[in-house]
Specification:
Layout lengths: L1 H27 L9 E2 L16 E6 L3 E8 L5 E9 L2 E8 L10 E8 L9 E7 L5 E7 L1
Parallel strand pairs: 5-7
Antiparallel strand pairs: 1-6, 2-3, 3-6, 4-5, 7-8
Keywords: Signal
Organism: Desertihabitans brevis
Protein name: DUF4232 domain-containing protein
């Protein structure tokens, strides 16, 4: 019986030692951001509106729904994670998605968002994109 108890203690220590690295890896992996918009395919522009990587905004439905297009890695695109109003401005927080390894390509990624109730029906707004290290962009959203 004493041998069994000793064996169980050793086994429990071994399991604890194996669990610690797993917990450490899980604690270091950031949670994916919560995206607040819907993926969207904007009207095609010929030539493209943004050839230099500057974000774009436009109406999906004037006064009710708009889209945001950002340019960057197709495997780690920026996505809207928060929307706050300030006067006649819509402040949209854009957060990088994907993992730590991103492709070095340049592609547009678009999301459609609803205009908040207090500004619905407004045909001319300013959209401020807060994009972290990529900067801050103030863009006109007009009918």
């Amino acid at each position: 019986m004493e041998r069994v108890v000793h064996l169980l203690r050793r086994l429990s220590r071994l399991l604890l030692l194996l669990t610690i690295p797993v917990l450490a890896v899980c604690a270091c992996t950031p949670a994916a951001p919560t995206v607040i918009g819907d993926p969207y395919t904007p009207p095609r522009h010929d030539p493209p509106v943004s050839v230099d990587g500057t974000p774009e905004v436009g109406w999906v439905e004037v006064g009710h729904r708009f889209y945001v297009t950002t340019w960057g890695s197709s495997s780690c695109p920026m996505a809207p994670t928060a929307l706050v109003t300030e006067g006649r401005s819509l402040h949209v927080a854009m957060t990088g998605t994907g993992g730590p390894d991103c492709t070095a390509d340049l592609t547009g990624t678009s999301y459609a968002l609803d205009v908040p109730p207090g500004l619905r029906g407004t045909e001319s707004l300013t959209v401020v994109l807060e994009m972290g290290r990529a900067g801050r962009f103030e863009l006109a959203l007009e009918a």
